[in-house]
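Example record for the data management plan.
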Amino acid sequence: MPGHDPDTGAYQHGKDIAFDLQFQTFKKMKKFNDTQRHFFTTANCGNPTCFSGRRKHIFFSAATTIILLLSLMTAPSAKSQDMQTLFDGDVKHGGFGGPVVRFGSIDNDLAVWVGGRGGWIINFSNQHSISLGGGGYGLVTEHQMPFQPENGETELAAAGYGGFEVEYTNQTYRLLHFTTSTLIGAGGLTTRTTDHEFSDSDPEPFFVLEPGVHAEVNMTHFFRIAAGLSYRITSGIDKGGFGDSDFSGLNAAITFKFGSF
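Corresponding structural encoding:
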């Protein structure tokens, strides 16, 4: 047919134009390489071998393009690759110490305990911090033993306890924030006279567990005041008519903290 004879100059000129368009298109896409350039140079040679090679190159190019697009669509961003943790940010350390006053009851009478506590503060972030430390408290009010000696002397309860304390603080940067704490330790109960002399050389040991919750105010950068409630649970008290139920119960506490928070 006229115009379709491969020996004519017009047909060869059309092939050259088609080749140039194909070559420029792949160059703009920045996806062509020596293999693809060889393919476009030989793809229109007209023999069965070239046609078979053309189909192989088309399949290879299409598969490569699909894989590349899927990789770009599913590749996570740099931010999403960051590990997610419960506590984020830089960990900072501090410490505190200060006096504590607790108010409770013994045998239905007001009981006041005075002592102190301190700890190592671990600030995981502005949202979360934990303190690890300890505290100790002694009974300062007078409570007569239910069973009195026959010699007529008045015996009073002398008791104290202490142990390991852990405290969690939420949003410690706020003026008013809340904490939860737990004390695990031991104590002892003995007797004394009204002259503050111990009358018993064999104190009664007991176990103590005291969880609590507190509201805390940042007075300054180095001073805080906390007020809250705790529940003291004792086990092992059986002395002079006192038992565990007399020393267990709800307590109110005021804590003064000084340190680096």
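Summary line stored alongside the record: The chain has a mean pLDDT of 81.
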